[in-house]
Protein backbone atom coordinates (compact mmCIF):
# COMPACT_ATOMS: atom_id res chain seq x y z
CA UNK A 1 0.00 0.00 0.00
CA UNK A 2 1.10 3.54 -0.71
CA UNK A 3 0.76 4.73 2.90
CA UNK A 4 3.45 2.20 3.87
CA UNK A 5 5.91 4.57 2.17
CA UNK A 6 5.02 7.22 4.78
CA UNK A 7 6.72 7.47 8.15
CA UNK A 8 7.61 10.20 10.63
CA UNK A 9 10.21 11.10 13.21
CA UNK A 10 11.66 14.05 15.07
CA UNK A 11 14.82 15.97 14.30
CA UNK A 12 16.82 14.96 17.41
CA UNK A 13 16.29 11.28 16.53
CA UNK A 14 17.85 11.94 13.12
CA UNK A 15 20.72 13.94 14.59
CA UNK A 16 21.55 11.22 17.14
CA UNK A 17 21.10 8.24 14.82
CA UNK A 18 17.95 7.05 16.61
CA UNK A 19 15.49 7.42 13.73
CA UNK A 20 14.45 4.14 12.14
CA UNK A 21 13.80 5.40 8.62
CA UNK A 22 13.92 3.60 5.28
CA UNK A 23 17.27 4.41 3.66
CA UNK A 24 15.56 5.87 0.59
CA UNK A 25 13.11 8.09 2.52
CA UNK A 26 13.07 11.77 1.68
CA UNK A 27 13.08 13.64 5.02
CA UNK A 28 10.39 16.30 4.73
CA UNK A 29 10.40 18.96 7.41
CA UNK A 30 6.94 20.23 8.34
CA UNK A 31 7.75 23.19 10.55
CA UNK A 32 6.74 26.82 10.22
CA UNK A 33 9.96 28.31 11.61
CA UNK A 34 12.91 25.97 11.01
CA UNK A 35 16.33 26.63 12.48
CA UNK A 36 19.59 26.19 10.60
CA UNK A 37 20.32 22.95 12.40
CA UNK A 38 16.84 21.70 11.48
CA UNK A 39 17.51 22.37 7.79
CA UNK A 40 20.73 20.36 8.08
CA UNK A 41 18.76 17.27 9.21
CA UNK A 42 16.09 17.26 6.49
CA UNK A 43 16.09 17.11 2.70
CA UNK A 44 13.42 19.79 2.36
CA UNK A 45 10.99 21.76 4.51
CA UNK A 46 7.34 22.47 3.78
CA UNK A 47 6.45 25.38 6.12
CA UNK A 48 2.88 25.42 4.78
CA UNK A 49 2.31 22.19 6.75
CA UNK A 50 3.54 23.67 9.99
CA UNK A 51 0.85 24.93 12.35
CA UNK A 52 -0.24 28.50 11.60
CA UNK A 53 1.55 31.24 13.51
CA UNK A 54 -1.47 32.32 15.56
CA UNK A 55 -2.07 28.74 16.74
CA UNK A 56 1.61 28.32 17.62
CA UNK A 57 1.60 31.57 19.60
CA UNK A 58 -1.56 30.65 21.52
CA UNK A 59 -0.10 27.23 22.24
CA UNK A 60 3.26 28.58 23.44
CA UNK A 61 1.54 31.17 25.67
CA UNK A 62 -0.62 28.46 27.25
CA UNK A 63 2.41 26.20 27.63
CA UNK A 64 4.35 28.92 29.46
CA UNK A 65 1.37 29.50 31.77
CA UNK A 66 1.27 25.78 32.56
CA UNK A 67 4.99 25.76 33.34
CA UNK A 68 4.50 28.74 35.67
CA UNK A 69 1.84 26.69 37.45
CA UNK A 70 4.47 24.03 38.12
CA UNK A 71 3.86 21.47 35.39
CA UNK A 72 6.90 19.74 33.90
CA UNK A 73 7.79 20.44 30.28
CA UNK A 74 5.92 17.45 28.84
CA UNK A 75 2.92 17.98 31.11
CA UNK A 76 2.73 21.68 30.22
CA UNK A 77 3.04 20.89 26.52
CA UNK A 78 0.24 18.33 26.53
CA UNK A 79 -2.05 20.38 28.78
CA UNK A 80 -1.58 23.45 26.56
CA UNK A 81 -2.41 21.31 23.51
CA UNK A 82 -5.77 20.49 25.07
CA UNK A 83 -6.41 24.01 26.36
CA UNK A 84 -6.06 25.66 22.95
CA UNK A 85 -7.81 22.85 21.04
CA UNK A 86 -4.67 22.37 18.99
CA UNK A 87 -5.70 19.17 17.20
CA UNK A 88 -9.03 20.50 15.94
CA UNK A 89 -7.53 23.87 15.00
CA UNK A 90 -4.69 22.26 13.05
CA UNK A 91 -7.08 19.92 11.20
CA UNK A 92 -9.24 22.93 10.28
CA UNK A 93 -6.14 24.75 9.03
CA UNK A 94 -5.18 21.81 6.82
CA UNK A 95 -8.67 21.72 5.33
CA UNK A 96 -9.05 25.48 4.84
CA UNK A 97 -5.58 26.61 3.74
CA UNK A 98 -5.09 26.54 -0.02
CA UNK A 99 -1.30 26.50 0.52
CA UNK A 100 -1.49 23.50 2.86
CA UNK A 101 -3.87 21.71 0.47
CA UNK A 102 -1.46 22.24 -2.43
CA UNK A 103 1.46 20.74 -0.49
CA UNK A 104 -0.66 17.84 0.77
CA UNK A 105 -1.64 17.10 -2.83
CA UNK A 106 2.01 17.23 -3.91
CA UNK A 107 3.05 14.82 -1.14
CA UNK A 108 0.15 12.52 -1.99
CA UNK A 109 1.31 12.42 -5.64
CA UNK A 110 4.87 11.71 -4.60
CA UNK A 111 3.76 8.84 -2.37
CA UNK A 112 1.56 7.42 -5.13
CA UNK A 113 4.53 7.51 -7.50
CA UNK A 114 6.45 5.30 -5.05
CA UNK A 115 8.60 7.82 -3.19
CA UNK A 116 9.21 7.13 0.50
CA UNK A 117 8.62 10.15 2.74
CA UNK A 118 9.44 10.76 6.38
CA UNK A 119 7.67 13.71 8.02
CA UNK A 120 9.99 15.51 10.44
CA UNK A 121 9.46 18.15 13.13
CA UNK A 122 10.78 18.92 16.61
CA UNK A 123 8.66 16.87 19.03
CA UNK A 124 9.33 13.38 20.34
CA UNK A 125 5.82 11.93 20.20
CA UNK A 126 6.62 9.38 22.89
CA UNK A 127 6.46 12.32 25.31
CA UNK A 128 4.60 15.18 23.61
CA UNK A 129 1.67 15.55 21.25
CA UNK A 130 2.55 16.82 17.80
CA UNK A 131 0.93 18.13 14.63
CA UNK A 132 3.07 15.68 12.66
CA UNK A 133 0.84 12.82 13.86
CA UNK A 134 -2.28 14.59 12.59
CA UNK A 135 -0.55 15.38 9.31
CA UNK A 136 0.43 11.76 8.81
CA UNK A 137 -3.17 10.66 9.51
CA UNK A 138 -4.45 13.18 6.94
CA UNK A 139 -2.06 11.87 4.29
CA UNK A 140 -2.96 8.26 5.09
CA UNK A 141 -6.66 9.15 4.67
CA UNK A 142 -5.93 10.72 1.27
CA UNK A 143 -4.12 7.57 0.20
CA UNK A 144 -6.79 5.07 1.29
Automatic annotation (TrEMBL):
Name of the molecule in the record: DUF488 domain-containing protein
Source species of the chain: Haloarchaeobius amylolyticus
Domain DUF488: from-to ranges: 22-141
Domain of life: Archaea
Pfam families (UniProt xref): DUF488-N3a
Amino acid sequence: MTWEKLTDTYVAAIQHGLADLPPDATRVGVVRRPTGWFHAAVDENQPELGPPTDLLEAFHDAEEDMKMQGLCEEGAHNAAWDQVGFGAAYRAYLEESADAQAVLSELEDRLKSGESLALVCYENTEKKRCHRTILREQLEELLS
